[in-house]
Specification:
The protein is α+β, with helices and mostly antiparallel strands. It has 9 helices and 4 strands; from the N terminus they run H-H-H-H-H-E-H-E-H-E-H-E-H.
Length: about 260
Amino acid sequence: MGKLAQEQSGGSGAPEWVLTYGDMMSLLLTFFIMLAAMSEVKKEDQFEALADALRKRFGKYVSLDEIAMYYKPTTATPLKSVSHGREKLARTLDGAGRVKGPAGRENLVRAIRPSDDATTGGVIFFEEGTNQPTASFDETIAKIASVLAGKPQKIEIRGHTSSRPLPPDSPYKNHWDLAYAECLKVMEKLTEAGIDPRRIRIAVVGANEPLSIDPAPEKRKMNARVEISMLNELTDEFRGTGEEKLRRFSVPVTP
């Protein structure tokens, strides 16, 4: 009779789901405690101790070089690890400065070529066989510099020439030499306009990447150009070893 009354009243114990819920809350509490503990790790010896404990528990090796590649509190997340979603890419290209960053919809932004590597910048056209730019060179450089200024990303200056053979009295040995001379002229103007030279990378392709393969003279002239592009790479990614990057970006701990 007592057992029947207990079954009718639902029993005296807690429902089974309460145990599962309690386990979940315990795991969440442990997770937040780990987050709070890791947020206080600011010294290399503390990080090594934490990394060693995680290695023993999960079998994952974490090195200082590995953490240095992604710990950049003063800039946007490295572009290697950012998804290619338009919204995230736009926020990343804003950079660390207060200057409005190009996101592909500004009036001064020009897409060089469809690519995952470089999306913004401009083009400077040159007279065939020379390093003399066409008209409006200074004005074009000023517009491009205003878009690229104040950002942490690398800038590539890529030199191109037309396929027209160089004259015998040309001061340039070949198209590679001519393309490099074009890049140097553009680099000098960009630095005069306030662009940090540490951000600049020069690439020379000569006549190997024509905009047009049409042999008509007017089409061929379009290939003598320099493309200026802001890359999806942070300038400081290429300066120093992993440990040096960690020290440079770490926040000093005040006693």
